[in-house]
Amino acid sequence: MNIIQVTDLHKSFGDLEVLKGITEEIKEGEVVCVIGPSGSGKSTFLRCLNMLEEITAGEVLVDGFNLIDPKIDINEVRAETGMVFQHFNLFPHMTALENVMLAPAKVRGISKEEAKTAGLAMLEKVGLSDKAYVYPDNLSGGQKQRVAIARALAMNPKVMLFDEPTSALDPELVGEVLEVMKDLAKEGMTMVVVTHEMGFAREVGDRVLFMDEGIIVEQDLPEKLFSDPKNDRTKEFLRKIL
Amino acid sequence: MEFEVQAMFKSFPFLLEGMKWTIYFTVTGLILGFAIGVIIGFGRTAKNKLLFSAATVYVEIIRGTPILVQAIWIYYALPELLGFNLNEFMAGTAAIAINSGAYIAEVVRGAIQGVPKGQREAGRSLGLNHFQTMRYIIWPQAFKRMIPPLGNQFIISLKDTSLFSVIGAAEMTLKATVVVAANFSYLEVYSLLALMYLSLTIPLTIALRSLERRLDVS
């Protein structure tokens, strides 16, 4: 079953058309990595999947909800869609645990004790039990991003969206975040990952999409796309970065 | 020239009486002003054009006119529209509230808009609605940013109350002019008046600076 179905998606910022017609299906349990040069529209594409960007034209179905239907409750869809940002966006006035507890308590309406138990379990999952009562300012970048992942997971989402989750990290901290993401993939989580980590895309991705200038230029199994790209633009991009 | 310390001591109780009203105007005016400021400040961040325009008009009118004019307008002109009189204490409180409300609105707007937009996105992406995101994520962070400018506004409004002598409110400056009219000790009484304002503003300024430092650390 397709958990995400995108049909002819267009997105413009004023006169600038960033997405020029994207059609894509993502199956449950799939790990899809989106690669491409900066400015190619990959982050915008990801952000359209939970309406952080308004959709200019086309259709996006997430878990059966049609995002452009004004009758749907977008908060309900977002509750099922975890999002991890490049700059973590942790809430600085809350401890790691409070960050993780907030949405389950306020959106799902579960009790504080339940949220706390679940939150501690989530932090343990990302290896940060000992940082539960620490504020984000006192965490390293890698720890912040793992808390951010735990925060998204605490809602038991059906899909996880990652927007360049390791791009803002010091090189030595990238590994710990990718490890958490690998574990998540192994558990069968559906993931859409915008990334510059080609190693991760190759190893963990079920499929890789190459985007350039607002369209998906080419997509394939990672081993095929990386070793035998068909499109000239893909070839050029891979030559530059590998 | 002779400086009569005695005249200072004698006039002190009268000025102290006035200081009560100075503090009363400042505190009640600012409590109401904060409420106005929050409402208008949210209006200034609203996407809704009507709300935004109404809030902007309010801020521009108040910031574009002197508080002295606002006070005499409220005290002398507004009753003609209302059909009943306001006493000088109501008018003074209203003037501080309406005036500080406009400045506090800009403080509120700046503080809300100063919270990085990723915070809102993170909240919304978790399924929190607009109100919840404001309540749990944006407002607590914005409020912290508001404290230093709110403290400054407190000091400004406190000094502004001295203008209410023109509407006959018995605050500290009016009391001083009354005392002076009787004893002609201009130098002593007006020096004491200045010192008494400083006795309020200096501790406030010091408290504010230390609060700012502490907020920076956390």
List the helices and strands and how they pair.
The complex is a heterodimer of chains A (242) and B (218).
Chain A: E1 2-13, E2 16-27, E3 31-35, H1 42-48, E4 57-62, E5 65-66, H2 74-79, E6 81-84, H3 96-108, H4 112-125, H5 141-153, E7 159-163, H6 171-186, E8 190-194, H7 198-204, E9 207-212, E10 215-220, H8 222-227, H9 232-241
Parallel strand pairs in A: 3-8, 3-9, 6-7, 7-8
Antiparallel strand pairs in A: 1-2, 1-4, 4-5, 9-10
Helix pairs in contact in A: 3-4, 3-5, 4-5, 5-6
Chain B: H1 5-44, H2 49-63, H3 67-82, H4 88-114, H5 117-125, H6 130-160, H7 172-183, H8 186-217
Care to describe what's here?
The complex is a heterodimer of chains A (242) and B (218). In chain A, strand 7, helix 6 and strand 8 form a beta-alpha-beta unit. The two termini of chain A are 34 Å apart. With 242 residues, chain A is α/β, with parallel strands linked by helices. The longest helix of chain A is centred in the C-terminal third of the chain and has 16 residues. Chain A is built from nine helices and ten strands. Chain B is mainly α and 218 residues long. Helices cover 83% and strands 0% of the residues of chain B. The termini of chain B are far apart. Chains A and B meet through helix 2, strand 6, helix 3 and helix 5 of A and helix 5 and helix 6 of B.
